[in-house]
Amino acid sequence: MTTRNHTRMTLTVVDGTPLPGQVVADTELVDSVAANVRRTYTAGGLMTLLAVGKVVLDALYGGSYDNFAAVGRTHASFRALAARHDIGISASSLWYAVALHENVLLLGQDDAQRIPLSQHRMLVHVRDPEARVELARRTIAEHWTVKQLEALIPPRQVVLPGKRLRGRPAMAPAVKAFHELRRAVEELPTVTAEAMQGESLEDGARLRGEEVEQLRQAIDAWLVSLEARVLS
């Protein structure tokens, strides 16, 4: 597969003109993009996130991923959009929604759709395009889990299979578990009580109240313990 040339732009557009709302947040523009994001984001699947990312790319980055790569979070209107609580998507997921487009550019639509979302989110942190494509192909061919892929992509470091890793120590297991839990929560389908009305569930498909409460208590207790030990 041919990989994309990732020479980064030194200017946001060809003539150096700032992107819409880049220097100072444009309230009307942010309101418009927020409304489109709300309409587009219905659940945390790959295709939905890519659709959200396209909304942001088109409105704030001139439809160009290279502009996003060059400007990123320094875009004032993007920061204003990410800070809003009414768009139904977290700030980190909003960034991933745009960043995931680079995976599609590198891999092609068909191969990109063969990789689970959690693995995609890890791959975007591989800055070497060749390394990312290689890891993505291995993920597809060998059905790598998140943990298998994560072993090759520690924080801020990337190695190819079989190469020795040097540098900062691996993330603490408790911190890893927290990030995995956060990703799982972000990827939960958004199912409202209204959407469930009229559905008839067999007894075996229902959740018992005590099971939900036990899970809630277990998560709360674990988070309190984690906060006391590792929160900085």
Structure description:
The protein has 232 residues and is mostly helical. It has a domain at 173-190 and 206-230. The protein has helices at 27-40, 46-60, 65-71, 76-82, 91-107, 109-112, 117-123, 129-142, 146-150, 173-186, 193-196, 209-230. Helix 2 packs across helix 5 (91-107). The chain is globular. Residues 1-11, 156-169 and 190-195 have low confidence and may be disordered.
Secondary structure layout plus pairing:
Blueprint: H1 27-40, H2 46-60, H3 65-71, H4 76-82, H5 91-107, H6 109-112, H7 117-123, H8 129-142, H9 146-150, H10 173-186, H11 193-196, H12 209-230
- Strand-residue fraction? under 5%
- Average pLDDT over all residues: 78
Poorly predicted runs: 1-11, 156-169, 190-195
Structural class: mainly alpha
Topology as a string of helices (H) and strands (E): HHHHHHHHHHHH
Largest sheet features: none
- The number of distinct β-strands equals 0
Share of helix, binned: 55-70%
Task: Supply the number of helical segments.
Answer: 12
Radius of gyration: 20 Å
Q: Kindly, what is the distance between the CA atoms of the first and last residues, rounded to a whole number of angstroms?
A: 43 Å
Shape: globular
In short:
This protein is mostly helical and 232 residues long. It is 56% helix and 0% strand. The model is unreliable at 1-11, 156-169 and 190-195 (pLDDT under 50).
Can you tag this structure with a few keywords?
single chain, 232 residues, mainly alpha, 12 helices, globular
